[in-house]
Design brief:
- By secondary structure, the protein is an alpha/beta fold.
- Helix content is 40%, strand content 16%.
- Strand 11 and strand 12 form a beta hairpin.
- The longest helix has 19 residues.
- The radius of gyration is 21 Å and the shape is globular.
- The chain starts with a strand and ends with a helix.
- The mean pLDDT is 98.
- It binds pyridoxal-5'-phosphate.
- The site of pyridoxal-5'-phosphate (PLP) has 14 residues, from helix 3 and helix 4.
Protein backbone atom coordinates (compact mmCIF):
# COMPACT_ATOMS: atom_id res chain seq x y z
CA UNK A 1 0.00 0.00 0.00
CA UNK A 2 1.18 3.54 -0.77
CA UNK A 3 1.98 5.56 2.33
CA UNK A 4 -0.73 7.85 3.67
CA UNK A 5 0.63 11.00 5.26
CA UNK A 6 -1.13 13.45 7.54
CA UNK A 7 -2.01 15.46 4.46
CA UNK A 8 -1.50 15.59 0.73
CA UNK A 9 -0.67 18.91 -0.91
CA UNK A 10 -3.41 20.37 -3.05
CA UNK A 11 -2.50 20.93 -6.68
CA UNK A 12 -4.60 22.44 -9.45
CA UNK A 13 -4.74 20.66 -12.81
CA UNK A 14 -1.69 21.29 -14.96
CA UNK A 15 -3.93 22.98 -17.49
CA UNK A 16 -5.23 25.34 -14.85
CA UNK A 17 -1.73 26.17 -13.59
CA UNK A 18 -0.52 26.59 -17.14
CA UNK A 19 -3.06 29.36 -17.71
CA UNK A 20 -1.06 31.42 -15.22
CA UNK A 21 2.37 30.20 -16.32
CA UNK A 22 1.60 31.54 -19.77
CA UNK A 23 1.32 35.00 -18.25
CA UNK A 24 4.79 34.64 -16.74
CA UNK A 25 6.22 33.50 -20.07
CA UNK A 26 4.41 36.38 -21.71
CA UNK A 27 5.70 39.19 -19.53
CA UNK A 28 8.97 37.71 -18.33
CA UNK A 29 8.33 38.78 -14.75
CA UNK A 30 9.34 36.16 -12.19
CA UNK A 31 9.25 38.13 -8.95
CA UNK A 32 9.38 41.64 -7.38
CA UNK A 33 5.78 42.78 -7.07
CA UNK A 34 4.63 41.04 -10.23
CA UNK A 35 1.09 41.12 -11.62
CA UNK A 36 0.22 37.61 -10.33
CA UNK A 37 1.27 38.61 -6.83
CA UNK A 38 -0.93 41.70 -7.03
CA UNK A 39 -3.82 39.60 -8.27
CA UNK A 40 -3.38 37.06 -5.46
CA UNK A 41 -3.23 39.85 -2.88
CA UNK A 42 -6.36 41.41 -4.34
CA UNK A 43 -8.28 38.14 -4.08
CA UNK A 44 -7.01 37.36 -0.60
CA UNK A 45 -8.01 40.84 0.45
CA UNK A 46 -11.55 40.15 -0.68
CA UNK A 47 -11.89 37.00 1.43
CA UNK A 48 -9.93 38.36 4.41
CA UNK A 49 -12.15 41.28 5.32
CA UNK A 50 -9.05 43.37 5.98
CA UNK A 51 -7.82 46.47 4.22
CA UNK A 52 -4.28 45.39 3.41
CA UNK A 53 -2.78 42.06 2.40
CA UNK A 54 0.90 41.42 1.81
CA UNK A 55 1.98 38.01 0.54
CA UNK A 56 5.36 36.78 1.72
CA UNK A 57 7.82 33.98 1.11
CA UNK A 58 6.47 31.90 3.99
CA UNK A 59 4.34 32.01 7.14
CA UNK A 60 7.29 32.17 9.50
CA UNK A 61 8.56 35.38 7.89
CA UNK A 62 5.00 36.68 8.15
CA UNK A 63 5.21 36.28 11.94
CA UNK A 64 8.66 37.82 12.08
CA UNK A 65 7.71 40.83 9.96
CA UNK A 66 4.54 41.23 12.03
CA UNK A 67 6.65 41.56 15.18
CA UNK A 68 9.04 43.95 13.40
CA UNK A 69 6.38 46.10 11.77
CA UNK A 70 4.62 46.60 15.11
CA UNK A 71 8.00 47.29 16.77
CA UNK A 72 7.45 44.66 19.42
CA UNK A 73 10.10 44.46 22.11
CA UNK A 74 10.42 42.76 25.47
CA UNK A 75 7.87 40.18 26.50
CA UNK A 76 5.39 38.58 24.17
CA UNK A 77 2.63 36.50 25.73
CA UNK A 78 1.99 33.44 23.61
CA UNK A 79 0.69 29.89 23.64
CA UNK A 80 2.79 26.80 24.20
CA UNK A 81 0.38 24.79 22.04
CA UNK A 82 1.35 25.59 18.46
CA UNK A 83 3.79 24.86 15.70
CA UNK A 84 7.43 25.75 16.43
CA UNK A 85 7.33 28.80 14.11
CA UNK A 86 5.05 30.66 16.53
CA UNK A 87 7.77 30.46 19.18
CA UNK A 88 10.85 30.66 16.96
CA UNK A 89 9.69 33.91 15.36
CA UNK A 90 9.48 35.55 18.80
CA UNK A 91 12.97 34.37 19.72
CA UNK A 92 14.37 35.27 16.29
CA UNK A 93 13.14 38.83 16.77
CA UNK A 94 14.93 38.98 20.12
CA UNK A 95 11.75 39.08 22.16
CA UNK A 96 11.04 37.03 25.25
CA UNK A 97 8.22 34.50 25.00
CA UNK A 98 6.01 34.28 28.06
CA UNK A 99 3.65 31.35 28.00
CA UNK A 100 -0.01 31.49 28.95
CA UNK A 101 -1.82 28.18 29.26
CA UNK A 102 -4.58 27.03 26.92
CA UNK A 103 -8.21 26.24 27.51
CA UNK A 104 -8.60 22.45 27.70
CA UNK A 105 -11.72 22.53 25.49
CA UNK A 106 -10.91 25.04 22.73
CA UNK A 107 -7.12 24.40 22.86
CA UNK A 108 -6.62 28.15 22.39
CA UNK A 109 -4.77 30.52 24.69
CA UNK A 110 -6.88 31.27 27.77
CA UNK A 111 -7.46 35.04 28.22
CA UNK A 112 -7.57 34.68 32.01
CA UNK A 113 -4.08 33.15 31.86
CA UNK A 114 -2.88 35.97 29.59
CA UNK A 115 -3.91 38.56 32.12
CA UNK A 116 -1.96 36.79 34.88
CA UNK A 117 1.25 36.96 32.83
CA UNK A 118 1.24 40.68 32.05
CA UNK A 119 4.19 42.67 33.45
CA UNK A 120 5.69 46.11 32.82
CA UNK A 121 7.70 44.58 29.99
CA UNK A 122 4.82 43.00 28.10
CA UNK A 123 4.33 44.52 24.68
CA UNK A 124 2.23 42.06 22.72
CA UNK A 125 -0.02 39.03 22.67
CA UNK A 126 0.69 36.45 19.99
CA UNK A 127 -2.27 34.08 19.89
CA UNK A 128 -3.01 31.16 17.58
CA UNK A 129 -6.40 30.10 16.25
CA UNK A 130 -5.55 26.45 16.79
CA UNK A 131 -6.70 24.22 13.91
CA UNK A 132 -8.73 27.25 12.77
CA UNK A 133 -10.74 27.49 15.99
CA UNK A 134 -11.35 31.19 16.77
CA UNK A 135 -9.64 32.53 19.88
CA UNK A 136 -11.70 34.51 22.37
CA UNK A 137 -10.99 37.63 20.29
CA UNK A 138 -13.33 39.89 22.28
CA UNK A 139 -11.65 39.13 25.58
CA UNK A 140 -8.19 39.40 24.05
CA UNK A 141 -9.17 42.76 22.56
CA UNK A 142 -10.40 43.94 25.97
CA UNK A 143 -7.15 42.93 27.65
CA UNK A 144 -5.01 44.49 24.92
CA UNK A 145 -6.70 47.86 25.13
CA UNK A 146 -6.68 47.83 28.91
CA UNK A 147 -2.93 47.19 29.05
CA UNK A 148 -2.02 48.88 25.77
CA UNK A 149 -0.70 45.76 24.08
CA UNK A 150 -0.48 44.87 20.40
CA UNK A 151 -2.25 41.74 19.22
CA UNK A 152 -0.94 39.40 16.55
CA UNK A 153 -2.96 36.37 15.50
CA UNK A 154 -1.18 33.43 13.95
CA UNK A 155 -4.05 32.47 11.67
CA UNK A 156 -2.05 29.88 9.74
CA UNK A 157 -4.96 27.40 9.96
CA UNK A 158 -7.79 29.86 9.56
CA UNK A 159 -8.59 30.33 5.90
CA UNK A 160 -12.33 30.46 5.19
CA UNK A 161 -13.26 30.79 8.87
CA UNK A 162 -15.67 33.46 9.97
CA UNK A 163 -16.28 34.55 13.53
CA UNK A 164 -19.20 36.80 14.46
CA UNK A 165 -19.79 37.48 10.79
CA UNK A 166 -16.23 38.57 10.04
CA UNK A 167 -13.35 36.60 8.49
CA UNK A 168 -10.90 35.54 11.18
CA UNK A 169 -8.09 37.13 9.14
CA UNK A 170 -9.51 40.58 9.92
CA UNK A 171 -8.87 40.49 13.70
CA UNK A 172 -5.95 41.90 15.69
CA UNK A 173 -3.39 44.55 14.78
CA UNK A 174 -2.05 41.93 12.40
CA UNK A 175 -3.15 38.46 11.41
CA UNK A 176 -0.69 36.20 9.67
CA UNK A 177 -1.23 33.07 7.66
CA UNK A 178 0.81 30.35 6.03
CA UNK A 179 0.38 29.16 2.46
CA UNK A 180 2.74 26.25 2.92
CA UNK A 181 2.22 23.02 0.94
CA UNK A 182 0.51 21.38 3.93
CA UNK A 183 -2.11 24.09 4.41
CA UNK A 184 -5.60 24.24 2.86
CA UNK A 185 -4.50 26.76 0.22
CA UNK A 186 -0.85 26.59 -0.74
CA UNK A 187 1.67 28.45 -2.86
CA UNK A 188 4.24 25.67 -2.25
CA UNK A 189 5.97 27.99 0.23
CA UNK A 190 4.22 31.17 1.18
CA UNK A 191 2.52 33.30 3.76
CA UNK A 192 0.63 36.54 4.20
CA UNK A 193 0.04 39.42 6.55
CA UNK A 194 -3.38 41.00 7.01
CA UNK A 195 -3.92 44.37 8.64
CA UNK A 196 -6.29 47.33 8.63
CA UNK A 197 -3.52 49.77 9.48
CA UNK A 198 -2.06 51.60 6.48
CA UNK A 199 1.23 52.51 8.16
CA UNK A 200 1.78 48.95 9.28
CA UNK A 201 1.04 47.73 5.75
CA UNK A 202 3.56 50.15 4.25
CA UNK A 203 6.15 49.07 6.77
CA UNK A 204 5.64 45.40 5.90
CA UNK A 205 6.05 46.21 2.20
CA UNK A 206 9.29 47.99 2.97
CA UNK A 207 10.61 45.24 5.21
CA UNK A 208 9.86 42.42 2.78
CA UNK A 209 11.89 44.17 0.05
CA UNK A 210 15.26 44.77 1.80
CA UNK A 211 13.97 48.06 3.21
CA UNK A 212 14.12 49.46 -0.36
CA UNK A 213 11.86 52.17 -1.64
CA UNK A 214 12.56 54.25 -4.75
CA UNK A 215 16.10 52.86 -5.03
CA UNK A 216 16.92 53.94 -1.49
CA UNK A 217 17.42 51.84 1.62
CA UNK A 218 15.15 53.40 4.21
CA UNK A 219 15.72 50.85 6.94
CA UNK A 220 16.95 47.36 7.76
CA UNK A 221 14.84 44.90 5.81
CA UNK A 222 14.98 41.37 4.52
CA UNK A 223 14.02 39.50 1.38
CA UNK A 224 10.60 38.02 2.16
CA UNK A 225 9.01 38.42 -1.28
CA UNK A 226 6.69 35.88 -2.84
CA UNK A 227 7.61 34.93 -6.42
CA UNK A 228 5.25 34.74 -9.40
CA UNK A 229 5.29 30.92 -9.65
CA UNK A 230 4.03 30.69 -6.10
CA UNK A 231 1.45 33.40 -6.69
CA UNK A 232 0.27 31.49 -9.79
CA UNK A 233 -0.17 28.34 -7.72
CA UNK A 234 -2.04 30.32 -5.09
CA UNK A 235 -4.41 31.82 -7.66
CA UNK A 236 -5.24 28.45 -9.21
CA UNK A 237 -5.67 26.77 -5.82
CA UNK A 238 -7.79 29.60 -4.48
CA UNK A 239 -10.18 29.17 -7.40
CA UNK A 240 -10.81 25.64 -6.08
CA UNK A 241 -11.31 26.69 -2.45
CA UNK A 242 -14.99 25.78 -2.33
CA UNK A 243 -14.37 22.36 -3.81
CA UNK A 244 -11.40 21.74 -1.52
CA UNK A 245 -13.40 22.56 1.62
CA UNK A 246 -16.30 20.41 0.45
CA UNK A 247 -14.06 17.41 -0.06
CA UNK A 248 -12.32 17.91 3.27
CA UNK A 249 -15.72 18.09 4.95
CA UNK A 250 -16.64 14.77 3.42
CA UNK A 251 -13.52 13.13 4.89
CA UNK A 252 -14.09 14.87 8.22
CA UNK A 253 -17.72 13.72 8.44
CA UNK A 254 -16.75 10.16 7.57
CA UNK A 255 -14.21 10.07 10.40
CA UNK A 256 -16.85 11.39 12.79
CA UNK A 257 -19.23 8.67 11.72
CA UNK A 258 -16.72 5.81 11.97
CA UNK A 259 -15.32 7.02 15.29
CA UNK A 260 -18.70 7.66 16.85
CA UNK A 261 -19.08 5.65 20.01
CA UNK A 262 -15.33 5.45 20.63
CA UNK A 263 -15.28 6.31 24.33
CA UNK A 264 -11.49 6.71 24.48
CA UNK A 265 -11.30 9.84 22.37
CA UNK A 266 -12.58 13.39 22.67
CA UNK A 267 -12.51 16.41 20.40
CA UNK A 268 -11.64 20.09 20.50
CA UNK A 269 -14.65 22.33 21.15
CA UNK A 270 -15.00 24.39 17.99
CA UNK A 271 -16.53 27.89 18.18
CA UNK A 272 -17.34 28.49 14.52
CA UNK A 273 -17.98 26.60 11.36
CA UNK A 274 -14.95 24.48 10.51
CA UNK A 275 -12.64 24.53 7.51
CA UNK A 276 -11.63 20.90 8.15
CA UNK A 277 -7.93 21.71 8.05
CA UNK A 278 -7.09 18.98 10.57
CA UNK A 279 -8.62 15.96 12.25
CA UNK A 280 -7.25 16.18 15.78
CA UNK A 281 -8.15 13.41 18.20
CA UNK A 282 -7.47 13.62 21.95
CA UNK A 283 -6.88 10.19 23.46
CA UNK A 284 -7.66 9.29 27.04
CA UNK A 285 -3.98 8.53 27.66
CA UNK A 286 -0.63 9.16 25.99
CA UNK A 287 -0.02 5.42 26.01
CA UNK A 288 -3.09 4.85 23.91
CA UNK A 289 -1.99 7.50 21.43
CA UNK A 290 1.43 5.90 21.08
CA UNK A 291 -0.15 2.52 20.49
CA UNK A 292 -2.37 4.00 17.76
CA UNK A 293 0.67 5.62 16.10
CA UNK A 294 2.59 2.33 16.16
CA UNK A 295 -0.33 0.45 14.71
CA UNK A 296 -0.96 3.01 11.94
CA UNK A 297 2.76 3.25 11.10
CA UNK A 298 2.92 -0.52 10.67
CA UNK A 299 0.27 -0.12 7.97
CA UNK A 300 2.23 2.65 6.24
CA UNK A 301 -0.06 5.38 7.65
CA UNK A 302 1.54 8.44 9.21
CA UNK A 303 -0.55 10.67 11.44
CA UNK A 304 1.27 13.62 13.05
CA UNK A 305 1.67 14.66 16.64
CA UNK A 306 0.52 18.25 16.12
CA UNK A 307 1.42 19.81 18.49
CA UNK A 308 4.02 17.93 20.45
CA UNK A 309 5.90 18.68 22.57
CA UNK A 310 4.53 21.71 24.40
CA UNK A 311 6.67 24.61 23.12
CA UNK A 312 7.89 25.23 26.66
CA UNK A 313 9.95 22.08 26.34
CA UNK A 314 11.62 22.84 23.01
CA UNK A 315 14.33 25.15 24.35
CA UNK A 316 13.62 24.73 28.03
CA UNK A 317 12.52 22.18 30.60
CA UNK A 318 10.15 24.06 32.86
CA UNK A 319 6.44 23.30 32.63
CA UNK A 320 4.31 26.28 33.63
CA UNK A 321 1.33 25.42 31.44
CA UNK A 322 0.01 22.05 32.61
CA UNK A 323 -3.00 21.98 30.30
CA UNK A 324 -0.91 22.46 27.15
CA UNK A 325 1.57 19.91 28.45
CA UNK A 326 -1.17 17.36 29.03
CA UNK A 327 -3.03 17.92 25.75
CA UNK A 328 0.15 17.91 23.66
CA UNK A 329 0.96 14.42 24.93
CA UNK A 330 -2.48 13.01 24.12
CA UNK A 331 -3.38 14.67 20.83
CA UNK A 332 -2.92 13.22 17.37
CA UNK A 333 -3.88 14.56 13.95
CA UNK A 334 -5.20 11.84 11.68
CA UNK A 335 -4.61 12.08 7.92
CA UNK A 336 -6.99 14.42 6.13
CA UNK A 337 -6.88 15.90 2.64
CA UNK A 338 -9.29 16.48 -0.23
CA UNK A 339 -7.83 13.38 -1.86
CA UNK A 340 -8.24 10.89 1.00
CA UNK A 341 -10.48 8.03 -0.07
CA UNK A 342 -13.48 6.84 1.89
CA UNK A 343 -11.99 3.34 2.11
CA UNK A 344 -8.82 4.78 3.66
CA UNK A 345 -10.79 6.80 6.18
CA UNK A 346 -12.65 3.66 7.15
CA UNK A 347 -9.39 1.73 7.44
CA UNK A 348 -7.73 4.40 9.62
CA UNK A 349 -10.78 4.85 11.87
CA UNK A 350 -11.08 1.06 12.14
CA UNK A 351 -7.50 0.80 13.39
CA UNK A 352 -8.05 3.60 15.91
CA UNK A 353 -11.20 1.92 17.17
CA UNK A 354 -9.52 -1.47 17.40
CA UNK A 355 -6.59 -0.15 19.43
CA UNK A 356 -9.06 1.66 21.68
CA UNK A 357 -10.86 -1.61 22.25
CA UNK A 358 -14.07 -0.59 20.48
C1 LIG B 1 2.43 26.26 9.21
C2 LIG B 1 2.46 27.11 10.41
C3 LIG B 1 3.37 28.19 10.54
C4 LIG B 1 4.53 28.41 9.63
O1 LIG B 1 4.27 28.60 8.32
P1 LIG B 1 5.39 28.34 7.22
O2 LIG B 1 4.71 28.87 5.99
O3 LIG B 1 5.62 26.86 7.15
O4 LIG B 1 6.61 29.10 7.56
C5 LIG B 1 3.25 29.03 11.63
N1 LIG B 1 2.33 28.81 12.59
C6 LIG B 1 1.48 27.77 12.53
C7 LIG B 1 0.47 27.61 13.62
C8 LIG B 1 1.53 26.87 11.46
O5 LIG B 1 0.72 25.82 11.44
Amino acid sequence: MKPIYVTKSVLPSLKHYNKYLKKIWGNGILTNDGPLLSELERRLRKISGSEYVMCLANGTLALQLALRALEIRGEVITTPFSFIATLSSVLWENCKPVYADIDSQTLNIDPAEIEKKITRNTSAILAVHVYGNPCDVDEIERISSRYNLKVIYDASHSINIKYKGKPLFSYGDISTTSLHATKIINTAEGGAIFTNNKEVAQKVKLLRNFGYRNYKILELGINAKMNEFSAALGLANLENLGKIIKRRKRVFDSYRRYLKGNGKITYQKFLSEQNYAYYPVIFLTEKLKKKVIRELNSRNIYPREYFYPSLELVFGSKITCPVAYDISRRILCLPISPYLKETDVRLIAGIVNKVCGN
